[in-house]
Amino acid sequence: MSPEEMSKTPSAAAKPPFRNILVPLDGSSESESIFQHVIPLALQFHSKVTLVEVLTTPQALLMETAPGDLGGSLVIDPTPILDAEKEQADTYLQQAAGRLRNAGLDVDVRDPQGAPGAIIFDVARDLGADLIAMATHARSGLGRLIFGNLSDEVLQATPCPVLLTRIGPGSGAPATG
After folding, report:
1. How far, CA to CA in Å, does 61 sit from each of 14, 35, 85, 113?
2. What are the residues facing 131 on neighbouring strands?
C-alpha cells in the first residue's frame, strides 16, 4: 500500500477501540472487582462507562416467593418489594458511579427490569457497547447447574468483546471472550 493510500485509510487511532464500556453489577462489592480493569481502560481510551444492575420483574418475584399450590388464597402485592429493590439499586449504582467519576471517568447508570442475560445484551446493543466488562463467580459443576452462569449467557449472545474477571480466591488474570 502506497503512502497516499495509507493516508486515505482511517487509522486505528481515529476510533478508540473502547468508546462505550458496559459494566454489569449485582449490587455486591465483589462485582466491583472489575473496576481495577475498567478504570485504566476507560482512562486510556476516554471511554464512557455505563453501569447496569438488572432488577427483578414483578412476575419473577411472584414466582420466587409464591409457596407451592396456594389455590388462589393468597395474593401478594410485589410493589413494596420492587420499590425497595429499585431504591437500593439506585443508591448502589450512584455510589459506584461516584467512585468511578472520582477516578476521572464519564459514567452513566441504568437499572432495568428483566432477565439479566437478555437485559445485558439489549443494553449493550442499544449503547453500541464496544466492551462488556464483568466479574464472574466462575461456578462449575453443581453450582453452575443450579445457579446457571450469567457470564456464559453473555458470552454466547453479546454483540461485542467481553472482559471477565473471577471473583474470589484463585482469581488471576482476566479472561476474554
Report:
1. 46, 30, 11, 11
2. 21
pLDDT exceeding 90 applies to what percent of the chain?
41
135, burial (CB in 10 Å: exposed 0-12, middle 13-18, buried 19+)? buried
Q: What are phi and psi of 163, to 5 degrees?
A: -105, 120
| Confidence at residue 56, expressed as pLDDT on a 0 to 100 scale | 73
Q: What is the mean pLDDT of the chain?
A: 79
Which three cell numbers mark 123? 443494553
Cβ-Cβ contacts under 8 Å for 69 (sequence gap 6 or more)? none
pLDDT score of 139 more than 80: no
pTM beyond 0.70, yes or no:
yes
* Measured distance CA(130)–CA(120) in Å, rounded: 13
Looking at residue 138, its pLDDT comes to 58
Give the chain's end-to-end CA distance (angstroms, integer): 32
Sheet holding 175-176, edge to edge: 106-110, 48-52, 20-24, 131-136, 162-166, 175-176
165, containing H or E segment = strand 162-166
